[in-house]
């Protein structure tokens, strides 16, 4: 029986991360200008409009299809509204171009003849409602750790027959607790706090990108390459979030968690980096950086049980949220044909800054959880320095935008 312990952790994003929160940037609450989404507070905007503009906006809101006309209303007043933004988010160039072409303009006619607009449904990543800064929910982190731990306990064995129909029974057997006796679940001893940006640093930058599907083999049948808009925390941000992991007794230890998570997630990341179909599509410099870190500094830290890989958030892929040996993923068949079940998917989702999505792609959700002790800090610093150099340009641009936002708000308040 181990004693209780608390370990401070710093979380580095290795690739773009989107943790869903059922929130979107409302199409009538933002404008995009010069590649930046400017989020607007309705109360602030209302105070800045003159009476004629307010009357016009009320009239547009009462129309049968108000979204397009309201988009056009705000878009036409960008110069006036941009300084009022409460938050600024980088937008991939092709998405910004789409906004210029399509926002407020009918794209087609519906079956009833009514205009159809692109409302630009941009899903937000989990954020603090007080300041809009992104964060990683502890529940998301704990869920990923639990998956790795269960896979470690299972050791690649197939499920028993009744466990195929009732997956909860598999967890009960592996974790050693009786049905309904959740108080005996050993993961009740594990507590993971929400991970927030350090108060000493600016929040990590986010960017709105396309999420695109790519088939693992050209011959595989898959869904069309539908593109959706997602806000993501940027890749290669060293110590983007800080939190803590508490182990309140029980037989699970920090070292065992490190081993389980790295044994489960590291082969998946390495396989993704070296996948025959995906490797040419990945951003080459990013792929080289992550491969070097895995072979050197991060690999050393893993061996010393100083931290672990996780995959979190949306589009992590079915392989990352299911157990080795148990995995049975439903694959839809041709029209009229029954689905099949396989241990791997036929496609993966990637982050893309271009609509064409034929190069410089990045996988979703990879993070490094660092709980390094003093004796290994030099290795951790060497790894973080490489990430800092790689992300320097995007971090500086983010800082400049934040500074400009502060100046804009100050000017507006004084005016």
Task: Kindly describe this structure.
The chain is α+β, with helices and mostly antiparallel strands and 415 residues long. Helix content is 36%, strand content 22%. Strands 2, 3, 4, 5, 8, 10, 11, 16 and 17 form a 9-stranded mixed beta sheet that branches. It has a 5-stranded antiparallel beta sheet with strand order 9-12-1-18-13, with helices on both faces. The model is unreliable at 406-415 (pLDDT under 50).
Would you spell out the secondary-structure blueprint of this structure?
Layout: E1 5-13, E2 20-25, E3 30-33, E4 36-39, H1 42-48, H2 51-61, H3 67-75, H4 78-81, E5 87-91, H5 93-102, E6 108-109, E7 115-116, E8 122-125, H6 138-154, H7 161-165, H8 167-175, E9 190-192, E10 206-215, E11 228-233, E12 237-247, H9 254-273, H10 284-295, H11 297-303, E13 307-311, E14 329-331, E15 340-342, E16 347-352, E17 362-363, E18 366-370, H12 377-390, H13 392-414
Parallel strand pairs: 5-10, 8-11
Antiparallel strand pairs: 1-12, 1-18, 2-8, 3-4, 4-5, 6-7, 9-12, 10-11, 10-16, 13-18, 14-15, 16-17
Helix pairs in contact: 6-9, 10-11, 11-12
């Amino acid at each position: 029986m181990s004693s209780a312990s608390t370990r401070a952790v710093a979380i580095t994003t290795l690739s773009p991360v989107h943790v869903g929160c059922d929130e979107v940037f409302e199409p009538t609450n933002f404008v995009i200008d010069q590649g930046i989404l400017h989020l607007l507070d309705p109360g602030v905007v209302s105070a800045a409009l003159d009476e004629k503009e307010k009357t016009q906006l009320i009239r547009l809101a009462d129309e049968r299809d108000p979204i397009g006309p309201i988009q056009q209303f705000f878009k036409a007043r960008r110069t006036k509204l941009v300084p009022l933004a409460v938050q600024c988010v980088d937008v991939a160039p092709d998405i910004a171009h789409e906004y210029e072409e399509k926002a407020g303009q009918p794209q087609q006619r519906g079956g009833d003849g009514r205009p159809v607009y692109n409302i630009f449904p941009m899903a937000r990543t989990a954020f603090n409602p007080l300041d809009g800064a992104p964060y990683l929910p502890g529940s998301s982190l704990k869920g990923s750790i639990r998956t790795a731990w269960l896979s470690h306990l299972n050791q690649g064995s197939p499920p028993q027959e009744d466990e195929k129909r009732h997956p909860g029974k598999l967890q009960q057997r592996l974790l050693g607790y009786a049905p309904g006796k959740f108080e005996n679940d050993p993961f009740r001893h594990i507590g993971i706090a929400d991970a927030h940006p350090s108060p000493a640093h600016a929040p990590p930058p986010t960017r709105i990108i396309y999420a695109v599907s790519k088939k693992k083999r050209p011959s595989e049948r898959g869904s069309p390459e539908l593109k959706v808009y997602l806000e993501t925390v940027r890749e290669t941000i060293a110590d983007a979030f800080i939190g803590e992991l508490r182990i309140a007794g029980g037989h699970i230890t920090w070292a065992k968690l490190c081993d389980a998570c790295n044994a489960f997630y590291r082969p998946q990341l390495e396989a993704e980096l070296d996948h025959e179909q995906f490797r040419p599509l990945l951003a080459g410099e990013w792929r080289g950086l992550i491969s070097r870190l895995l072979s050197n500094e991060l690999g050393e830290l893993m061996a010393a049980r100083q931290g672990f890989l996780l995959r979190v958030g949306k589009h992590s892929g079915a392989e990352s949220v299911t157990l080795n040996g148990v995995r049975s993923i439903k694959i839809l068949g041709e029209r009229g044909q029954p689905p099949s079940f396989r241990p791997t998917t036929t496609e993966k989702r990637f982050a893309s800054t271009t609509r064409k999505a034929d190069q410089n792609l990045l996988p979703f959700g990879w993070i490094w959880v660092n709980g390094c002790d003093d004796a290994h800090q030099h290795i951790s610093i060497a790894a973080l320095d490489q990430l800092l150099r790689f992300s320097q340009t995007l971090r500086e641009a983010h800082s400049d935008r934040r500074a400009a936002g502060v100046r804009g708000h100050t000017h507006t308040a004084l005016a």
